[in-house]
Amino acid sequence: MSAPDPVDRLRRLRTTPAVRDLVADVNLSTNDLVAPLFVREQIVEPQPIESLPGVVQHTVDSVRREVAELVELGLRAVVLFGVPAVKDAVGSGAYDPDGIVQVALRALRADLGDEVVLIADLCVDEYTDHGHCGVLDAHGRVDNDATLELYARAGVAQADAGAHIVAPSGMMDGQVAAIREALDRAGHQSPAILAYAAKYASALYGPFRDAVDVEIADGGDRRGYQQDPRRRREAMLEITRDLEQGADMIMVKPAVAYLDIIAAAHERFEVPLAAYHVSGEYAMVHAAAERGWIDGPAVMVEQLTAIKRAGADLILTYAARSFAESVGRP
Ligand code: PBG
Prior knowledge:
Blueprint: H1 6-11, H2 17-23, E1 33-40, E2 47-48, E3 56-58, H3 60-72, E4 77-83, H4 100-112, E5 117-122, H5 144-160, E6 165-168, H6 175-185, E7 192-199, H7 206-211, H8 234-244, E8 249-253, H9 259-268, E9 273-277, H10 279-290, H11 296-310, E10 314-317, H12 320-327
Parallel strand pairs: 1-3, 1-4, 1-10, 4-5, 5-6, 6-7, 7-8, 8-9, 9-10
Antiparallel strand pairs: 2-3
Helix pairs in contact: 3-4, 5-6, 9-11, 10-11
Bound molecules: ligand PBG.
Residues 121, 123, 125, 133, 169, 205, 208, 222, 278-279 line the site of ligand PBG.
């Protein structure tokens, strides 16, 4: 008697769409996705972002319509980024109670209450005239500790305005502790902190910087505070530090190019793990699809599935709306 053919046995569960659906163990759903949204001060019409097809800079009115539609489509969460009319050295629009994100948060919370999770990206680079994620010292370097003060104020302003979750993305050391302490002092016990814990200094953020009108002064970059892509284990250290400081959720960013980091973080930590499918990852799929070189929607779903398969519990992606439209309401 010869042994059964192992190839045949595996193929039996691939024969029909129904059997494939039945045995699939990684199923992407609208519950997993968070839509990043940009809201810009002092514009009257939404502005398209050339390098992010399908994504716009919203007015407060249009972001209210957009979020209502996303909820209708079955999505459960959005993350807001602000584009102020005026930028300054300290990024004061990030913590001004009348700053654009705070205005949008108040409107959305009034419209939708707790029906959608409102996440506020917490950083100052969209608001600083030099484009860095913090204030600069006399030598033009980002001053970590002086920046913590600003993040603490921004976190409180966002919580005051109705954010369910604040998401510090600036990679300053000690940022989670500073924000947690300020929220506690202000009596905000409910807002959770989603820490952009392992955020790499990536070349994949280009279209995002178009979306928020950020150009880093003097041809600078963020390598002094974001992680070096050549370091793997340091990501675990970053995450550990953020959890010690009181983070409720952690994030790895970018996503597709950092699946190894997502997988390692999933194995090691018990808190919900987010991954940011960033602007460059999204834009590349669109650009190749536009040339007819790949099937864009299929590649997008394949990428998002890979991110989930690696271990992400939630995915921030510009494809959230198109995915929700393609699957219909669950
Ligand atoms: C910083 C921030 C960035 C992104 C999210 N938050 C840009 C950066 O670090 O330069 C990038 C997101 C994307 O590329 O989609 N506030």
